[in-house]
UniProtKB/TrEMBL annotation:
Entry protein name: Transmembrane 9 superfamily member
Superkingdom field: Eukaryota
Lineage: Eukaryota, Metazoa, Chordata, Craniata, Vertebrata
Gene Ontology BP, a term: protein localization to membrane
Keywords recorded for this protein, A-Z: Golgi apparatus, Membrane, Signal, Transmembrane, Transmembrane helix
GO cellular component: Golgi apparatus; membrane
One Pfam family from the record: EMP70
Family: Belongs to the nonaspanin (TM9SF) (TC 9.A.2) family.
Membrane topology recorded in Swiss-Prot or TrEMBL: Multi-pass membrane protein
Signal peptide per UniProt: 1-18
Species assigned in the record: Bubo bubo (Eurasian eagle-owl)
Length: 625
């Protein structure tokens, strides 16, 4: 059964290479039909601040129209807008001048020249799309042309967008000529019909040259930030036929990361987790069996006189902890996150949230988090009732506002900084109001609803009665310290997922596409299993040491891998990103804090529920007089 399950999963994983996106129909072009080229944004992994296309003095069409965007696109900083490039299906163009004036250079003011030079220094990329496909530029690895010829087409890598310009010493050069290379796939039609074409791939070459007889202009052109500059924007269009089918046209963009690494990391994690879980299960089950058998033998009176271990604390193990309301609220948010992440990854694994539907992932995640409030509220309410809480309205309010409030607060502060920089990454005011309305209009009532039913339901049944007087807790050894526990418990889950973490980080911070959701789903399952095991082991050791205050401790310790994620994020910042300025660093650490917090809630919740089930199981198995 297990093998068959693994095979099905592997097939699913393998199937995520090609994308056929439900709901997105291919556009068929005829010869000479216009193919619109739109601009998305300018991005840089050095400043982490996206800007909209016309924040720089590019050529503008007579009428600028922005596309209506979904929530995810707005949050990502996309501002999709039309451009003056005239491209027609299967029509070649050589060295067209872009701006309306026939072959007259555009004059940039000193301010504009300074701004362009600044953006080139900050390493900005321009992102364009045609027929919803991003324009990519080819990365060249070899300086030697012969080696380049030998190198097979398959290994060519692309990067998203094209570079705005480059620096040579202290001089700034702007890529003012773009050569578009578009690949089309000819669709099969009946004989007497006009052939139809579909755009399947798009390349831009900013290194090509263009000579116009009557114009004085070179490409790339030097920009002197201290004076006015004369600029000529030009472009050319070249069409090539391609065998790529429309359904798999995204593959070229998505094979940018190495799939082999994922396989190695997954197999490695699976082996480690199964090996450890085997050992843990053996040890725990054998010791427990022995423990339970010993405790249930009632023959030797002397033995029971000198009892030790976890049976001793049976009268205190279900004593409610301090701050039960906060604990149940955090666990409610953890359940909400858990449901959201599970559904998002599963749906994405089936290929429904592919990168071709822009912003779909973030939109789905936001809405799902709001709607999963029912489950969060239900679990929080039931736990709060079990912990002898009685102020359910206050508890529900706490669940609905504690974690989302922290997230909203941090995002609002960061947003103010982004606003100050006039970046398109700032969430506009209407969107913010819409998000607040979703929070208070959808999430809050749903949490209250769930909490009400959870609180009315029978509390979890505890197998043993709690004594009136709390028992003395003996002096604990050094390794039972909370911090040592966090360090020990965090290693295994973090080790199982840190390679995937690297890809997620580069997707967020370096403008890559992340699409290996099949792998992510597997990693998520491994994470759940390893968190549960670690948490059970920790709780067992703690109860054997006769320390019965396990509620909060289990929650904190199971979230130990979040501590490692934080350390990894700092390492990534220092080694992989060349961010030097204050605001980008602030953004990086602000968003990292949110990720770490969410991850801590998620893993803490998984560990807590595993430990709670375990504790109820073992005390139910012992006869207690």
């Amino acid at each position: 059964g297990m093998l068959r399950y693994m095979l099905v999963l592997l097939l699913l994983l393998h199937g995520t290479d090609s994308f056929y996106v439900p709901g997105v129909a291919p556009i068929n072009f005829h010869h000479n039909d216009p193919v619109e080229i739109k601009a998305v944004k300018l991005t840089s992994s050095r400043t982490q601040l996206p800007y909209e296309y016309y924040s720089l003095p590019f050529c503008q069409p007579t009428k600028i129209t922005y596309k209506a965007e979904n929530l995810g696109e707005v949050l990502r900083g996309d501002r999709i807008v039309n451009t003056p490039f005239q491209v027609s299906m299967n029509m070649e163009k050589k060295c067209e001048v872009l701006c309306n004036l026939p072959n007259k250079p555009v004059t940039l003011t000193v301010e504009q020249s300074k701004l362009i030079a600044e953006r080139i220094r900050e390493d900005y990329y321009v992102h364009l799309i045609a027929d919803n496909l991003p324009v990519a530029t080819r990365l060249e690895f070899y300086s030697n042309r012969e080696e380049e010829e030998k190198k097979k087409e398959k290994d060519v890598q692309f990067e998203h967008g094209y570079r705005l310009g480059f620096m040579d010493g202290n001089k700034f050069y702007l890529h003012n000529h773009l050569s578009f290379i578009l690949y089309y796939h000819r669709e099969d039609v009946e004989e007497n019909q006009e052939p139809t074409y579909r755009v399947v791939h798009l390349k831009a070459d900013e290194k090509s040259m263009c000579t116009l007889p009557e114009a004085t202009g070179s490409a790339p052109q030097e920009i002197d930030p201290s004076k006015e500059n004369q600029l000529l924007f030009t472009y050319s269009v070249h069409w090539e036929e391609s065998d790529i089918k429309w359904a798999s046209r995204w593959d070229t963009y998505l094979t940018m990361s190495d799939v082999q690494i994922h396989w190695f990391s997954i197999i490695n994690s699976v082996v480690v987790v199964f090996f450890l879980s085997g050992i843990l299960s053996m040890i725990i089950i054998r010791t427990l069996r022995k423990d339970i058998a010993n405790y249930n033998k009632e023959d030797d009176i002397e033995d029971t006189m000198e009892e030790s271990g976890w049976k001793l604390v049976h009268g205190d193990v279900f004593r409610p902890p301090q701050y039960p309301m906060i604990l149940s609220s955090l666990l409610g948010s953890g359940i909400q996150l858990f449901c959201m992440i599970l559904i998002v990854i599963f749906v994405a694994m089936l290929g429904m949230l592919s990168p071709s539907s822009r912003g779909a992932l973030m939109t789905t995640a936001c809405f799902l988090f709001m709607f999963m409030g029912v489950f969060g509220g239900f679990f929080a309410g039931r736990l709060y009732r079990t912990l002898k809480g009685h102020r359910w309205k206050k508890g529900a309010f706490c669940t609905a506002t504690l974690y989302p409030g922290v997230v909203f607060g941090i995002c609002f502060v960061l947003n103010c900084f982004i606003w100050g920089k006039h970046s398109s990454g700032a969430v506009p005011f209407p969107t913010m109001v819409a998000l607040l309305c979703m929070w208070f209009g959808i999430s809050l009532p749903l949490v209250y609803l769930g909490y009400y039913f959870g609180f009315r339901k029978q509390p979890y049944d505890n197998p043993v009665r709690t004594n009136q007087i709390p028992r003395q807790i003996p002096e604990q050894r050094w390794y039972m310290n909370k911090f040592v526990g966090i360090l020990m418990a965090g290693i295994l889950p973090f080790g199982a997922m840190f390679i995937e973490l690297f890809f997620i980080f580069s997707a967020i911070w370096e403008n890559q596409f992340y699409y290996l959701f099949g792998f992510l789903f597997l990693v998520f399952i491994i994470l759940v299993v390893s968190c549960s095991q670690i948490s059970i082991v920790m709780v067992y050791f703690q109860l054997c040491a006769e320390d019965y205050r396990w509620w909060w401790r289990t929650f904190l310790v199971s979230g130990g891998s979040a501590f490692y994620v934080l350390i990894y994020a700092i390492f990534y910042f220092v080694n992989k990103l060349d961010i030097v300025e204050f605001i980008p660093s602030l953004l990086y650490f602000g968003y990292t804090a949110l990720m770490v917090l969410s991850f801590w809630l998620l893993t803490g919740t998984i560990g807590f529920y595993a430990a709670y089930m375990f504790v109820r199981k073992i005390y139910a198995a012992v006869k207690i007089d």
